[in-house]
Write a structure and sequence with these properties.
The protein is α/β, with parallel strands linked by helices and 276 residues long. Helix content is 40%, strand content 13%. Helix 5 (111-119) runs parallel beside helix 7 (138-147). The protein starts with 9 loop residues before the first strand and ends in a 10-residue tail after the last helix. GO terms for molecular function: hydrolase activity.
Length: 276
């Protein structure tokens, strides 16, 4: 695919880096750091948040997180630590019963892990995919609040806005919902998530896999400081995500906010000239 030509500085808040054979086998893809970096450059992306892909059930993310941090050195990647937990993210009565008895296992993220990641200058935030990795317990979430680093959350049909509000938004920390909180392609959930931005000052959304121009434009126009560009690479070539923003009917100033200013304000390591 040909490289894009534009005059914008672009940083990406949602990229996945599979650091080892286990991650590749679980997710069914094999994208090397070199290839991911090359595709980012083709799209004009100068820096990207990177976190591990899904691990096999019962495996810790500790080794995968450290591998992503190592692979980010001397590359335009900003490492985020991926978290997991013992609690069921569902909202039904079965989930409620399960969570009454949920206990943290050896492979689940511990409060001490969060503290270690927070003070390790290789990591600049956290990612959470509740629908595949479960929800952390209250002790871990409290440590996340203390750390006050961005938490990027895979939200959508399996973890809808109501669940996000109940489980996460009571904590005072910046939360970014991927895909406007409506993955996959659920415009109703996306609009409900945008409604939540009126109520929670530390809630943000990223543009990965939104695909609906009207929804994207609504988010950018109504909440110009809380929409962050995210490509969802390597599942989607970053060129696709960039073009979806560049073709919106919004001003260049708003595009610059989405493509670079907003992400860099939330994640300083994405800023121009940042030492990472």
């Amino acid at each position: 695919m040909l490289g894009l030509e534009h005059d914008f500085r672009i940083v990406d808040t949602r990229a996945t880096l599979d650091p080892d054979e286990s991650s590749v086998a679980t997710h069914g893809r094999d994208i090397s750091p070199e290839r991911l970096e090359r595709e980012m450059l083709q799209a004009g992306i100068v820096r990207a948040v990177a976190s591990p892909g899904q691990r096999a059930a019962g495996q810790s993310y500790l080794r995968a997180n450290n591998a992503v941090a190592r692979l980010s050195i001397d590359r335009p990647f900003v490492a985020f630590a991926r978290l997991n937990g013992p609690r069921d993210p569902g909202t039904g009565p079965v989930s409620v019963v399960r969570n009454l008895r949920a206990e943290r296992d050896d492979h689940h993220t511990r409060p001490d892990d969060v503290e270690q990641y927070s003070y390790d200058d290789r990591f600049h935030g956290f990612t959470l995919a509740p629908h595949v990795d479960g929800l952390p317990d209250e002790d871990v979430l409290s440590r996340l609040e203390d750390a006050d680093l961005p938490l990027f959350v895979h939200a959508g049909q399996a973890f809808p806005p109501e669940a996000v509000e109940t489980e996460l938004l009571g904590y005072d920390l910046p939360v970014v919902l991927g895909s406007f909180g409506g993955y996959p392609l659920d415009a109703e959930l996306m609009n409900r998530t945008l409604d939540l931005l009126d109520e929670y000052d530390r809630l943000y959304v990223d543009t990965s896999a939104v695909r609906y121009r009207e929804v994207l434009e609504r988010g950018v126009l109504e909440h110009p400081d809380r929409v962050l560009f995210g490509s969802g690479a390597p599942d989607v070539h970053p060129n696709v995500g960039v073009m979806e923003v560049l073709t919106l009917d919004v001003s260049e100033d708003l595009m610059r906010r989405v493509l670079a200013k907003n992400p860099a304000r939330l994640v300083p390591a994405l800023a121009e000239g940042a030492d990472v």
